[in-house]
Amino acid sequence: MPLLQPRLNLKVSQRQILTPGLMQMVSVLALNKMELAEMIQNEIAENPLLEEMDESIPMLDDVEQRESARELTAQATEAAPADPFEEIDFGNYFQEYLDPGFRSQREFEEIEKPGFEQFLSRPTSLFDHLQWQLGAQNLAPEVAQATEFLIGNLEENGYLASSLDDLTAVYAASMEMRASAALAILLHALQVIHSLDPAGVGARSLSECLQLQVRAQLHELDALYAPSRSTSTPLSDATMLAVQDDEQPTAEALDSPHHSLHAAVQLELQKRRHCFELASAVLQSHFALLTHRDPREIAKALSCTAAEATEVLSLIRSLDPRPGTRYSSRETQWIEPDVAFVKRDEVWVALMNEENLPSLRLSHRYRRMLAAKSTEKEVRDYVKDRLRSAMQLMRNIAQRKSTILRTCEVIIRRQQDFLEQGMEALRPMMIKEVAEEIGVHPSTVSRAVANKYAHTPQGVIELRAFFSEGSNGPEGADTPLVVLKRKVRKLIDEEDPKRPLTDDQLAALLQTQGIQVTRRTVAKYREDLRIPSTHQRRMRG
């Protein structure tokens, strides 16, 4: 039996290892201008060898010179005898005490003004809007608490995504009560939320959301319909007596002009109420028929006329399927272009936007400290480490600028028609092609254009938008996918709603424009644009 013995074996292999400097270069390249400025400020705060070249910010060397000059001045002042008579400010004395007239003390006052933050506002969220309405209702404490719990679980679109069973289990555990009691309270709280504005909030499905909106509008209509007899246009005495006694109006009442107006209003209200009732029935029992958008099917299911079914479809189409989105608008994200495409002497050039971007330099003070022989070893090692880090960051920033400019120069050469004519003249261009032209890896170009924008004559455009495959794939035609999808959407927007274009017809129309595409390709692009099929787009009636 062989014995286990330790051995030493040598093995030669090649591996790719990302050094800290290379990792920083990759991360710096992927940053846009605003992110890079924030990163530089953080590095300046952490690395004492980095200084910002800004006249408004004093450098450490300048501070040292000022301190030295101040010390020399102080020493000279101490040496010379001070004249007490010169220390008196006679101008201020006479202005303060010998001015006989009234004058404002504005130059000496310090008025406390409100901070700028007090003028800033933020949009009202859905939670704030619902909470504000709850404050005006007289609810039991347990119901109010359950209502706040459900409001906190609403999504941005206003839906209650979590199931009621899961919410009941969580609420019962947090309140230490039985599940049955928690369910009863949550059901009551859910009814309270359904009565709040916007109508449809707190729904658990699209059908319920639309039903709640129809119910709310029907409630408003009933509130208008109930007092209509007393609040409508004043009627004659004969008409009023006939209405109050529920009798047929007399000939005098029928001849009154107020009677015809009153009757027309009542008829219109009844028709509107009937339309709401039909819409509620469709949403409750025949929701699947809405996908076909065929008034004849709805009329057959509801036993109504085709005209009434068309009005029902128009009413449902006017409802909001996401009622909470109006209160969940996200904060505006500022976009600052990293590069500008400008024309100089009939030649397009790319210019880096370095405005408000900190310019870095190495501190002379620490460099002298590194060269001094009296510096301790620990301090010297620390300064060397910080110096290497600062120089690496400055090289990476310069490398980022060079890579972005070289990439943009290739974009300008390949997309001059776009700069002159617009989006319709955009040409297909692959990241791999640009990477081969400037001699870098495709991932480098991908990071160089990620989350970065260019100021062009056609507007501020993301650099990634310039890269798109051809309509027939990477080796295909001259029409990029972005332009082709825009053409498909434009053809569909201009079609006849009663006779929408099929995918074959769309492909044929594109072929007449010189774009060779198949029906399957058009269908794929239409689905990418989330455009319904021909059958679903057809307006019947």
Helix content: 40-55%
H-E order: HHEHHHHHHHHHHHHHEEEHHHHHEEHHHH
Q: Specify Rg, calculated over alpha carbons.
A: 38 Å
- Oligomeric category: single chain
Give the termini separation.
93 Å
With strands numbered from the N-terminus, the spatial order across the biggest sheet is: 3-2-5-6
Q: Indicate the overall shape.
A: extended
Mean pLDDT reading: 76
Instruction: Determine the strand fraction and express it as a percent band.
Output: under 5%
List the total number of helices.
24
Number of strands: 6
Low-pLDDT stretches: 93-114, 116-120, 228-247, 472-476
Let me know the largest β-sheet.
4 strands, mixed
Helix vs. strand class = mainly alpha
Structure description:
The structure is a single chain. With 541 residues, this protein is mainly alpha-helical. Among the domains are: 124-196; 205-239 and 257-328, no CATH class; 479-541, Arc Repressor Mutant, subunit A (Orthogonal Bundle), CATH 1.10.10. 54% of the residues lie in helices and 5% in strands. It has 24 helices and 6 strands. The strands form 2 sheets. It has a 4-stranded mixed beta sheet. A two-stranded antiparallel ribbon has the order 1-4. A hairpin with a 2-residue loop joins strand 5 (453-456) and strand 6. Helix 6 packs across helix 8 (179-194) and helix 7 crosses helix 8. The longest helix is centred in the C-terminal third of the chain and has 38 residues, at 377-414. It starts with 19 loop residues before the first helix and ends with a helix.
